[in-house]
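Severity: low
Component: inverse-folding endpoint
Summary: output formatting inconsistent between runs
Steps to reproduce: submit the following structure tokens with default settings.
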């Protein structure tokens, strides 16, 4: 489902941090909401996010680039 940028921005600005994180991951990986919400820290290994899509069973890996803050503690 697609929403206009201004609606995304309104919702994002009103959301709590966990919801913002999920929105960021969904946006950056183009994953379905159900797949995004199943992601945990255990899916991150050797600088990559590795997931298996629910609907298709496709296995995907995304490189994690940039600085890492203490988000995972």
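Observed output (run 2 of 3):
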């Amino acid at each position: 489902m697609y929403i206009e940028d201004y609606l995304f921005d309104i919702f994002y600005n009103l959301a709590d941090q966990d919801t913002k994180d999920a929105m960021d991951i969904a946006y950056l990986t183009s994953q379905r909401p159900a797949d995004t919400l199943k992601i945990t820290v255990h899916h991150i290994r050797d600088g990559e996010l590795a997931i298996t899509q629910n609907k298709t069973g496709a296995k995907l890996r995304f490189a994690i680039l940039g600085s890492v803050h203490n988000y995972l503690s």
